[in-house]
Amino acid sequence: MSAKKYDAIVVGAGHNGLICAAYLAKAGRKVLVLERRHQVGGATTSEEIYPGFTYTCCSYVVSLLRPWIIRDLELPKYGYEILPLESTFTPFPDGRYLMRDSDPERTRRSIAKFSPKDAEVYKRFGQEMAELGRLIKPLIDDPAPDPLSRDPRELLRLGRLGKQLRGQGDEWLYANVKMMTMSAVDFLSERFECEELIAPMAISGIIGTFLGIRSPGTAYVLLHHYMGEIDGSFRAWGLPKGGTGAIANAIAASARALGVEIRTEAPVAHLLMKGNQATGVVLENGDEIHARAVVSGLDPHRTFLKLVGEEHLDPEITQQVKRFKMRGSSGKVNLALDGLPDLACLPGPGPQLTGGITIAPSIDYLERGYDEAKYGAFSRKPFMDVLIPSLTDPTVAPPGKHTMSIFVQYAPYHLKEGAADWPNQREAFGDAVIDTLSEYMPNLKDRILHRQVLSPWDLEQIYGLTEGNIFHGELSLEQLAFLRPMAGWSRYKTPVDNLWMCASGTHPGGGIMGAPGALCARTMLGKRAV
Amino acid sequence: MATPANTVIVIGAGPNGLAAAARLAQAGKKVLVVERAAAVGGLSARHEFHPGYAVAGILHDEALLPRAVAEKLGLSRHGLKFQKAPATYLAEASGPGLLLPSDTAGAAEAIGRRSAHDAKSYTAMRAFLDRITPLFASILSEPPPAISPGSAGDLWQIAKRGLSLFRIDRKDLLELARVAPMCVADFLNEKFETPLLVEALAAPAVASTWSGPWSAGTMTNFLLRECAGGEAIEGGPPALIAALLAAARAAGAEIRTETEVARIRLENGNVAGVTLASGETIDAKVVLSSADPKGTMLKLLAPGTLPLKIEEEFINLRARGTAAKVHLALSGPLELTGNEGQLDEAIRIGGGHVDDLERAFDAIKYRQFSERPNLEIRVPTVADPSLAPAGHHTVSILASFAPYKLEGGWTDAARERFGGAVIAVLEQHAPNLRSRIVAREVLSPLDLETRFALTGGQLHHGEIALDQLLMMRPAPSAPRYKTTVPGLFLGGAGSHPGGGVRMTAGVLAAEAVLGG
């Protein structure tokens, strides 16, 4: 069909694909984005699943999108607006509760009910994390340094980095090494004494991973989630106005304005290969489109095993790809509500409902949930991160009605009975979620107009996330930085000539951060690949 | 007691303490070793648990013992003889089990009778381990690198290590970087299809750590173990103690047993000696403690000695015991059903799948002991019949997992219940076991703490975990044996490179004393 030749074809219109395309177009390249679904955004999506209600189906908060990307792509001009979320509320089964919000004094008083000592430590904790984050921040805005490299330029960069690190002093270095290697619980327990605070704080260390809060490496993920910055303030979370999909729409609009062509309902079947070189793509309808470079916005498994195909890969690469751990561990339950539910511990409307509501009452609770998942069952009593987006952004539900987004962990993709059993277990999983939440919100069930349950299997079917992994691959130590997605292939370039990767399966990883997309484009342009 | 000015007091006469004493005395220091127990040896001493019945050490595995350190101390002159480690019999519930020789070719052949794929994988894995062993050998035999190299010596050490990295193939280095932070279950499942083998290879990497095979980072411990010596010694751990004692004495070190230190004395902030539990004081400007770091820094130093921040480091050092020792006296051999007619020295019994090992670990998270513990077994009487009356045998079992802090406490009843759980697991493989039991001893982590002065009952003096290795061990303020208290050195299992029947920490601490 198309005789037009593109400089680059981006497969998948998730936020990273769109960002990569936008940057390439900004540099004057002719770019085509192909999306399988009827809309852009991938997992950065909001959809009207039930008439009148816009669900934030997958990703539900934003904090990580890099500020320079927002500026470069002029996203506010295209409708990008973040409504701040200012609190986290943690109810306990015995009626007590913990409220952490943007007012330090209120937060201190709330924590002091549990432990006066922890209330004091907490005041300094954000600052401490910000200090520690100084190491990570430059690393997430650049391709990952490769400490095992033998390239003199890379060694020079490492030397500079080493010098910079040394300048920070031993104490800071030790704290960083500990943070990279400890579990979230151990890391927090060195600072805090009360479990009612440690448990809800530790969950940031496991969101989207198949790790328990006691697994080494989770302290790093904790920091990863502390990197959020909206208007420069550390650890600030927000809701995109109009739902998460509005971010994707803003990026897409910016990309289009820069000349990017975006086609939806254009599923790619596989790449066009000439030897070890990608020359374009073949759509499922048989159309062939050629380009100088192909950029995959899909996860590493899909990119290599589906787009390229094992037959075009060195068996060693195939093995490495297969060893890259996906293992989705979480699900989503989205609700349309007739009215606001009441929290048993603090009934009525109020700030306790407007922020995040975290169901993480104890370390053992979270650990038991993890143990069930290890052996192939969803947690009967899961950790939940609950939001009522309509309270912050009334445009997503009819007047007086509400939407509720429930992020649930653990829901292992690999059930004992096999992943394909998820359709049989999906509603039981939804019931476990609603039953557990009802212990804290007794009238929740009466308010439900509609419920959508997304298991990891569903996330795979609908959004093309292999094994339902929301980060395109586990954020475990061996799959980060210069090892993401594979040792030796962490710079967006792939073993297939002219094929690049730009999504969460590459450094610096998942979340609505945008850095992989932007860094991929920067690298491609730097190498004159397009 | 007044002593010469160059006196060094060494606290504890386990392998590290005695090795430190030998090294210091050989370098001309006046050395006094003080040991609270009646006999030297610590966890490596011959342990008589019932009249006439003994095991060859609370720690019964010499695989970590470094030959180079033994040579440096001249232990062969004092009777130390290395030998090939015994084969390990992996028992299984229904099947013949697997007798795994300690050499690669023999093991691969045995595995090959189960699975040709696994035999090939095993050979390839050992080859990879052999290729990276030079790197690990240097890590395990030297003080840990400085976190921010300052001195010329630091830079030289880093340069040397950098060069040794260059000698290893980049592909191997990338693979090492990939696997080191992994969990041991993922790594072994990538390689092997025989569940029995995966569980058995994973078990040593998690024994007496606070982690299960699915815990991230356990591969590092696996690599540290697999790249260590892997040999055994004639006579087991007590033979090492005998050689060390002879070497230390020959060099002029004095060893006093039944001499418990109550306090490390300071004068003007510097070490001035020790005060014994008896009230006696001994002067010395240098004290090298091979006792555990928490005990040394938090109990032997007077409260308030350490600045709060430093004290916190030692409070935060995680040292939770996770295993119990069970000792059995038998009126006959330990006969296993899968392996009739053969007397094995080393045996492993698990549930048959790596998930069973993980389940055993799960229990301690909730302050319970495992009802189906994983057993690492030695039958020392096979090699040394003198440990029991003629025809009788003793069995040494390291049983994982059992928490230090058990819900309800380690009462006599709880201890007996755990002993019962261990016997029940063993009995499934040794049906005639019960009638042969003459006596049994169960040492819970709490017992290990009270009887052997091990804080938390932690056999490694501090858990083996990613954030408690190298210069993080035992604490950032004491990364290279020297503490912030002038004259006080830490040279036990709590310091790099860690515990087990090993002497490296003691020798490196002694060298830190000599270097200072």
Main interface pair? A-B, 36 and 35 residues
What is the helix tally of chain A? 19
Molecular shape of chain A:
globular
**Distance N to C terminus of chain A:** 23 Å
In the predicted model, the low-confidence regions of chain B spanning at least 5 consecutive residues are none
> Oligomeric state of the chains?
heterodimer
Spatial extent as radius of gyration of chain A: 23 Å
- How would a crystallographer describe the biggest sheet of chain B? 7 strands, mixed
Strand order of the largest sheet of chain B: 7-6-15-16-17-14-18
Bulk shape of chain B: globular
Give the class of chain A from helix and strand content and strand pairing. alpha/beta
| Number of extended strands of chain A | 20
- Major pleated sheet of chain A: 7 strands, mixed
- Counting DSSP H or I runs of 4 or more residues, the number of helices of chain B is 17
Q: In percent terms, what proportion of residues of chain B is strand?
A: 15-25%
What's the average pLDDT of chain A?
92
Give the integer mean of the pLDDT values of chain B: 95
Rg estimate of chain B, integer Å: 22 Å
Distance between the termini of chain B: 24 Å
Amount of beta strand of chain A: 15-25%
